[in-house]
Predict the structure of Cytochrome C oxidase subunit IV.
Amino acid sequence: MADVRTYALIYVVLLVLGTGKFVFFTFDFAYATAMGATILLAIAKAGLIAGYYQHLIEEPRAVSYMMGVALFMVFLLTVAAGYSIQ
């Protein structure tokens, strides 16, 4: 298990990444650039939360790969659902 210093550092990084949305949409960025950067920040935040706060870092790699495959399948289902709505 990680120590308090690691959790505090991850918290600060999450705080900085969370303010990125504000920065991208407040200052003069193109909407597509701001949206793409916000999505990338959200992916990074989700990875940090899953890795450290849900302790996937300490799990065997097979569990991490299984979670990655499940996430990819959810992504495919979301794309398929979006395609069928059109």
Q: What stands out?
A: Helices lie at 4-26, 31-53, 61-85. Residues 60-86 form one domain.
